[in-house]
Specification:
Blueprint: E1 2-9, E2 14-21, E3 32-34, H1 36-61, H2 68-93, E4 95-97, H3 105-126, H4 133-156, E5 160-161, E6 165-166, H5 168-192, H6 197-225, E7 226-227, E8 233-234, H7 242-291
Antiparallel strand pairs: 1-2, 1-6, 3-4, 5-8, 6-7
Helix pairs in contact: 1-2, 1-5, 1-6, 1-7, 2-3, 2-4, 2-6, 2-7, 3-4, 4-5, 5-6
Length: about 290
């Protein structure tokens, strides 16, 4: 049986992918388990992040020629990136082995940067005036590869020794799921821009649920591909502790997503009122014009 291994080269600071064969008869794996409550919560965070991204995409598309577009694009990328990254690490917190686990701080930060950059790219693509099929496929592929990179770099942050081994078929399936989910997400976000206000909320909630399930599906498919050889140790056990990560990530990610969503709604409301006042003043000027 062939195996894929990912590990960090400490001297060159490169993530190395090694493809080798191993005997399934002689190989023994560590026992692992999941906290179903945290699994469910990771799905909620993925769905909330997806809904926030869809709302921001609609908001940014209305600011095509506004200076505030870049501010919303940067803020949206930050919120969406933290949301996707948080889903990954909440999913990791739900996972437990029979040994102490920790995460390397630097590698963990790198995975967050990837998530934010991928989110910026996604929001930029879906808010373009015209999104062609070729652009949709290329954008979905790059976004999917970025999300996969974030996930597996987050796994590398554990610094397992020997390195985590991945079953190639499931490993490849997780990347394909990420690409398919990203392409579908870009298409949904672009399609919802033309939806009427009456059906927009229902469509957006439905699309967010689909996207959330797809993002979580990629994560847990990737986890299903992972194999931890018996006797492995976590080289980052002295790094970021899972319990501290949980205390930091869970409230912070929810707060950022909710605040971003509220600010988007308030800004949209303020813009609507401003436009209404402008139209009203124009009508008053037209009525008073002949009298003058």
């Amino acid at each position: 049986m062939y195996r894929v291994r990912l590990f960090v080269n400490e001297e060159s600071c490169e993530v190395v992918l090694h493809y080798s064969s191993s005997s399934s008869e002689s190989r023994q794996s560590m026992q692992s388990s999941y906290n179903l409550g945290l699994v469910a919560f990771s799905l909620v965070v993925a769905t909330l992040a997806s809904y926030t991204a869809l709302d921001l995409a609609d908001r940014i598309s209305l600011l095509a020629y506004s200076r505030s577009r870049h501010i919303w694009l940067a803020g949206g990328a930050l919120a969406m990136g933290i949301g996707i990254w948080s889903m990954h690490f909440i999913g990791m917190l739900s996972f437990s082995l029979s040994i102490p686990i920790g995460y390397d701080f630097a590698v963990t930060c790198y995975s967050l940067v990837i998530a934010i950059l991928v989110s910026w790219f996604a929001l930029h693509v879906v808010t373009l005036d015209r999104l062609k099929m070729s652009g949709l496929i290329a954008g979905g592929t790059l976004m999917g590869l970025g999300i996969s990179g974030m996930h597996y770099l987050g796994m590398v942050a554990m610094k397992m020794n020997p390195p985590i081994q991945y079953e190639p078929t499931i490993f490849a399936a997780s990347i394909l799921i990420a690409i398919a989910a990203s392409t579908a997400a870009l298409w949904l976000a672009n399609t919802l821009r033309g939806a009427g206000p009456n059906r927009l909320m229902r469509k957006r909630i439905g699309a967010a649920c689909v996207m959330g399930i797809a993002i979580a599906g990629m994560h847990y498919t990737g986890m299903a591909a992972a194999d931890f050889p018996l006797g492995s140790i976590c080289g980052a056990a002295g790094g970021i502790k899972p319990q501290w990560l949980a205390l930091a990530i869970i409230p912070l990610s929810i707060a950022i997503l909710v605040v971003t969503l509220l600010l988007s709604r308030l800004d949209a409301r303020a813009t609507f009122l401003s436009n209404s006042i402008t139209r009203l003043n124009e009508q008053i000027d037209r009525i008073q014009g002949p009298a003058r």
